[in-house]
Write a structure and sequence with these properties.
Layout (H helix, E strand, L loop, with lengths): L3 E3 L8 E6 L13 H11 L3 E4 L9 H4 L5 E8 L6 E4 L11 H10 L3 E4 L13 H6 L5 E6 L12 H9 L5 E5 L12 E6 L3 H11 L2 E4 L6 E5 L2 E5 L5 E5 L5 E5 L3 E5 L7 E7 L5 E3 L3 E4 L5
Parallel strand pairs: 2-3, 3-4, 6-7, 7-8
Antiparallel strand pairs: 1-18, 2-9, 4-5, 5-6, 9-10, 10-17, 11-12, 12-15, 13-14, 13-16, 16-17, 16-18
Bound molecules: zinc ion (2 copies).
One zinc ion binds next to loops.
Length: 294
């Protein structure tokens, strides 16, 4: 019996949609008005955008009527604790210092909760790791945050992600601009397999893990079938398969790779596709069950 691979990705019946889920406007500390932020993302060719002002759910209904972008209501809960992105919420979530209360309130509204830039700040611990382990009910974490490229700490947090996944947590990895200035726009995005129209359909895909995160590499095919994993990223120069605690289990110096899952990798594998310079795309994890475990 083949090793079982649990994949969130679909083979057909979806549309790839690209978008950034973390952008500030002049409603909080961004320099551009909401109209100009939307115009900048339209120009970039994205299909969805979340406006996530600090402790403010910027109203989007009037703006939505003037753009083809799918706009998602959001709020970056910022005061009194580490930043937490709430998506698809019907009202701004109060910045309770207990971030579990914030997550629960977002989820109760049918929203998503995402832990922002875990490795920001000089101690690389905007989120102390024990806090990330203690909190439950969040959809994922930012594994890349654009604005932190220009701030102390690391924009990347795949290390935190691997630690959570290795501890058995099922959380997704997001890549966002966290745009405050025009030069932050277009640094990072998410590409989702969306099966309907509107913000709810985008959020359903994100919640299910049917997306990949990117800083410039496109993935056009992800297929997991019969113990094999196939990934094609047209402009990738190398593709890495990593497992628990970030361990490299396979490297293809190519734009496509086919990997036979042995079952000895651990509880999950995930794929990183490296392109030119620092560009990368990250798939969500694929969970592995060995026949003996079944
Ligand atoms: Zn933040
Ligand atoms: Zn932010």
């Amino acid at each position: 019996m083949a090793v079982k691979i649990e994949s969130a990705y679909l083979d057909s019946g979806f549309e790839w949609m690209r978008g950034n889920l973390h952008a500030h406007t002049s409603v909080s500390d961004g320099v551009l008005s909401p109209e100009n932020v939307i115009a900048a993302y339209e120009k970039l060719g994205h299909q969805f955008l979340a406006i996530s002002d600090h402790d403010n759910r910027t109203p989007l209904d009037a703006l939505q009527r003037k753009t083809a972008l799918t706009l998602i209501h959001a709020n970056e809960v910022s005061a009194k604790g580490p930043h937490l992105l709430t998506l698809n919420v019907s009202s701004a979530v109060e910045p309770n210092p207990d971030r579990q209360v914030v997550i629960d309130a977002a989820v109760a509204q049918g929203g998503l909760a995402i832990l922002n830039h875990p490795n920001w700040e000089p101690n690389y611990a905007h989120y102390p790791h024990e806090l990330m382990e203690r909190l439950t009910g969040y959809t994922g974490i930012e594994i890349f945050n654009g604005v932190v490229e220009f701030l102390p700490g690391s924009p990347l947090a795949t290390d935190r992600w691997d630690r959570l996944l290795s501890a058995g947590r099922r959380v997704w990895g997001f890549a966002n601009d966290d745009a405050h200035f025009p030069h932050n726009i277009g640094l990072a995005w998410n590409v989702a397999q969306v099966t309907g129209k509107g913000p709810q359909a985008v959020c359903d895909a994100l919640k299910a893990g049917r997306f990949y995160a990117s800083t410039g590499v496109e993935i056009s095919r992800i297929v997991a079938r019969s113990g094999m994993l196939f990934v094609y990223a047209p402009r990738a120069q190398c593709i890495r398969v990593v497992s628990e605690y970030g361990r490299l289990v396979y490297l293809a110096e190519d734009s496509e790779m086919e990997y036979e899952v042995t079952g000895d990798e651990g509880a999950y594998i995930r794929v990183e596709c490296y392109g030119r310079g620092t560009r990368c795309a990250w798939t969500q994890p694929f969970f592995i069950t060995k026949p003996a475990d079944a």
